[in-house]
Amino acid sequence: MLFVDSRYVWESKPDGALAISEDTWNEPLGRGTEIRLHIRDEAGEYLEEKNLKRTAQLMYQAALFMLNDPKEFASRIYNSVKSSLSISPDAIIEEEDDVEEVET
Fold it and tell me: Strand, helix or coil at 26?
């Protein structure tokens, strides 16, 4: 069993697009989680308590995933994000061209 011990940055756009990338530019935290919100003035609803709780819950759920199968891990993250954004499980979401394929 392999546990993920890297740092990741989660970024979202107003249209619902989400990007997760390894954090290579911030100082190491050691253990634990740090949440930084960079909110534009017109996106103030994301600072509402219910939205902050939903974001924290999503991050907590993602942190508990074990990386036995990277494709399963990616699928679980994807489904959690769709759920937290209230996107129907049956919705078809087009991928962006700049998404990097990862071989397993």
Answer: coil
